[in-house]
Every structure is written in C-alpha cells, then in structure tokens.
Design goal:
- The chain is α/β, with parallel strands linked by helices.
- The chain has one domain (7-16, 27-161): 3-Layer(aba) Sandwich (Rossmann fold), CATH 3.40.50.1240.
- Helix content is 34%, strand content 24%.
- It has four helices and six strands; from the N terminus they run βαβαβαβαββ.
- Strands 3-2-4-1-5-6 form a six-stranded mixed sheet, sandwiched between helices.
- β5 and β6 form a beta hairpin.
- α1 (34-54) crosses α2 (67-79).
- It is globular.
C-alpha cells in the first residue's frame, strides 16, 4: 500500500484528570482539569497538522468508558475540525490484546481514513512497543500522541507528540 492507502491510527493517552479526594481508583466521574483541557487541545492541534499533511480524515473514535478519555476525545475533535465520526466505547486492553484490537479496528479503514483511539497509559505503552519504541517515556505523559500506520510491511511509526 502507498502512504495514503495505509491504515492510519492515532493513539492518545487521556489528558490530566481530577483526582479523587482520599485516593481511590474509581474510573467514573473524573473530569479533565484545566491543564488537561490544555493538553487535549495541544494533542488536537498536533493531530490536525498530521491530518492536513497526509490528507487524512478521522473516520472513527474509540474511547474507553471513562469520562477522561471521552472528554479528551471531545476536545481533540474540536481541534481537528472533523465532521462527527462514528464513536464507540471499548476495552482497549494491554500487551498483545492491543495489537489484535488495533488490527481489527483498522481493517475496514479506507484510503485517507484515520482511527483515533483515546485510552490509558498501559495501552499507549503497548502501542509504542508495537511500532518499535520499547523504551519510550511517552506512555506516562498525559495527552501524549502516537501516530502510525499499518501496511503490507506491518506497523510503522509516523509521528509523536510531544517529541522525545
């Protein structure tokens, strides 16, 4: 496949979110902070540039069920000037699960389409591993973005934000 015929994806780690008083790990009801909104805007601006440079459009958005991933996706979509793409909630998984799901989710993309996935740090680390960045610290950064594509040769990395 040529560049435009490749299956493109952008994986974004959710932006910074409000902590629960007293700790805890509940996943619902944790909105983005002001800094988180700023991070999501920056991620969206970066993606808008990638989309323009490669002639892409956002075809679908996958988020987890958490408020922070959904809000991050909402902010990003306002920055990329996208018509409302299809959306779904899904468990993104870890490790090998991520590679299988990425292959499944990108299989039906057409030329010029990009799949936007907004998830959590462990899944971003698995995506970075998939495209050959096994030691990257990006997986721990709120609002980090990995853009890649899959073609006949396999997965490849195209762009990252912030650049490391």
């Amino acid at each position: 496949m040529d560049e435009i015929g490749a299956r493109w994806f952008a994986y974004v780690r959710h932006a910074e979110y409000a902590k629960i008083a007293g700790g805890g790990r509940r996943n619902d009801g944790r909105p983005l902070t002001e800094l988180g909104v700023t991070q999501a805007r920056a991620a969206g601006d970066f993606l808008a540039d990638v989309i323009r440079r490669h002639g892409l459009r956002v075809a679908e958005v996958v988020t987890t069920a958490t408020q922070r991933t959904q809000q991050t996706a909402d902010v990003i979509l306002t920055r990329v000037d996208a018509s409302p793409p299809a959306r779904r909630e899904a468990s993104i998984g870890r490790g090998g699960d991520v590679a299988d799901r990425m292959a499944l989710w990108t299989a039906d993309l057409r030329a010029g389409e990009l799949l936007l996935i907004v998830g959590h740090g462990p899944s971003l680390s698995a995506v970075l591993d998939l495209v050959g960045l096994r030691t990257s610290a990006l997986g721990s950064l709120h609002g980090a973005v990995a853009v890649g594509r899959r073609d006949g040769e396999g997965w490849s990395r195209m762009a990252f934000f912030p650049e490391k």
